[in-house]
């Protein structure tokens, strides 16, 4: 019978591409179909979006009783292929350890929320659709994290984590690493710097802080030592000293690993430190668009209706300008308020000595443990400076007023925003 069929051709029910896919699926090299060993690895798992455990016949040459073994399968979304090309793959085909870890992180997190302890054989449609959304969210957060870190302004990495809900990167927000000065506002750059060979050891009068009538702000280790309310004058681009000068701290950027994370009690995003921070260390600047106070009033009314404000008054000498971090900002955009904060803000002058336009820098007001959330008081009060007690400054004129920047909410139609800082001295509202 078989001999009779010699030379006979039968049309294959499968198309070439289906056969190629089958080869890839079974990891079978077929040169006739153009499936080469090299190409086997072209399939990259983008993410895993479903799971099931079933009993399959053991693959043995001799298995007459049809012995079964339990096998785990994962639904794979392939990179570069549409969703309808997703395939179920046994665990043994997968080498994407990190994606598997993420997948199970999400599964356990969700089962925990549903108060379930056992992993089911098959996931309910609700769970698999949630896992897919989580996988996509993770991708967009990873892209955002990469974009943030490409902007600069930090020597360590900024991480982004959301273990709470499906919120992705904020819309209409651009990450920046310097002030964005609005049209019509001019910033004049400094024309003189110091000539010190060692700014910390040189007589203070000749160095930048002294010239402007202030004390040296930092200790040798870069900790701020002047009281809140006092301005900081750092060395600038005209100074003879190098980048390692102890009077260059804020300008060197963020030096701790920080994480933008989703808070669990409805405060949106927040910022925490991934490493221990010493007392009086520089943490970050408050950056945004510099706008006039009139413009801030207009924008404030809109922001108030949206229930969030990112306006920070620059009222060091007069109330002329405001920093608006709503649409342009850095990591400080995500720092929440606390009635018992661990950050303190200082006015800093570097390349621009215009007292109406200080830079705003956050320093830790105590030692902060790894994992702690970073917060500042949106309505902070600074005690008037005791000139006598800060000996170092007693030789100089106090040009800096003890006024401080304040997060601003529009005065018109002020609606009290409930504070959820959770501290024992919570005053109950933000503004
Ligand atoms: C500068 S933003 C902080 C980042 C913000 N959580 C986010 O997701 O973009 C200020 C807004 O965060 C929220 N927020 C900050 N601290 C809070 C607190 N202690 N209690 C309640 N909401 C807070 C309020 O909506 C506030 O208007
Ligand atoms: Zn100097
Ligand atoms: Zn210097
Ligand atoms: Zn200098
Ligand atoms: Zn509070």
Gist of the model:
The chain contains five helices and 19 strands. The protein is an alpha/beta fold and 431 residues long. A hairpin with a 6-residue loop joins strand 12 and strand 13.
Under the CATH scheme, which class of the largest domain?
Mainly Beta
Write down the secondary-structure element order: HEEEHHEEEHEEEEEHEEEEEEEE
CATH architecture of the largest domain: Beta Complex
Major beta sheet, strand line-up: 4-8-9-18-15
CATH topology of the largest domain: Beta-clip-like
| CA distance, first residue to last residue | 92 Å
Counting helices, strands and paired strands, the structural category is alpha/beta
Ligands and ions found: S-adenosylmethionine, zinc ion
> Number of domains in the coordinates?
3
Helical coverage, percent range = 10-25%
């Amino acid at each position: 019978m078989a001999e009779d069929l010699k030379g006979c051709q039968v049309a294959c029910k499968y198309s070439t591409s289906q056969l190629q896919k089958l080869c890839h699926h079974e990891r079978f090299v077929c040169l006739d179909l153009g499936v080469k060993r090299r190409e086997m690895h072209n399939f990259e798992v983008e993410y895993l979006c479903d799971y099931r455990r079933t009993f399959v016949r053991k693959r043995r040459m001799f298995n007459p009783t049809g012995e079964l073994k339990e096998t785990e399968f994962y639904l794979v979304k392939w990179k570069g292929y549409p969703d309808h090309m997703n395939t179920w793959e046994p665990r043994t085909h997968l080498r994407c350890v990190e994606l598997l870890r993420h997948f199970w992180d999400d599964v356990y997190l969700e089962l925990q929320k549903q108060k379930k302890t056992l992993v089911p054989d098959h996931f309910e449609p609700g769970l698999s659709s949630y896992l897919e959304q989580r996988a996509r969210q993770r991708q967009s957060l990873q892209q955002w994290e990469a974009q943030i870190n490409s902007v600069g302004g930090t020597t360590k990495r900024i991480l982004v984590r959301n273990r709470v809900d499906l919120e992705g990167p904020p819309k209409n927000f651009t990450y920046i690493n310097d002030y964005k000065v609005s049209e019509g506002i001019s910033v004049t750059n400094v024309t003189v710097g110091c000539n010190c060979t060692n700014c910390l050891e040189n007589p203070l009068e000749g160095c930048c802080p002294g010239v402007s009538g202030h004390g040296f702000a930092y200790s040798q280790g870069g900790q701020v030592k002047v009281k809140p309310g006092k301005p900081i004058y750092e060395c600038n681009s005209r100074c003879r000293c190098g980048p390692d000068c102890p009077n260059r701290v804020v300008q060197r950027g963020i030096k701790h690993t920080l994480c933008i994370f989703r808070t669990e009690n409805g405060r949106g995003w927040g910022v925490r430190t991934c490493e221990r921070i010493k007392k009086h260390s520089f943490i970050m600047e408050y950056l945004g668009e510099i706008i006039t106070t009139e413009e801030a009033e207009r924008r404030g009314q809109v922001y108030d209706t949206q229930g969030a404000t990112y306006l920070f008054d620059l009222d060091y000498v007069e109330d002329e300008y405001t920093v608006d971090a709503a649409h342009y900002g850095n990591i400080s955009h995500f720092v929440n308020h606390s009635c018992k904060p661990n950050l303190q803000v200082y006015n800093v002058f570097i390349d621009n000595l215009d007292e109406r336009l200080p830079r705003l820098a956050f320093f830790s007001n105590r030692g902060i443990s790894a994992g702690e959330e970073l917060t500042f008081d949106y309505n902070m009060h600074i005690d008037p400076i005791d000139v006598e007690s800060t000996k170092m400054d007693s030789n100089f004129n106090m040009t800096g007023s003890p006024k401080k920047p304040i997060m601003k909410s529009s005065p018109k139609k002020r609606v009290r925003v409930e504070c959820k800082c959770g501290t024992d001295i919570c005053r109950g509202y933000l503004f």
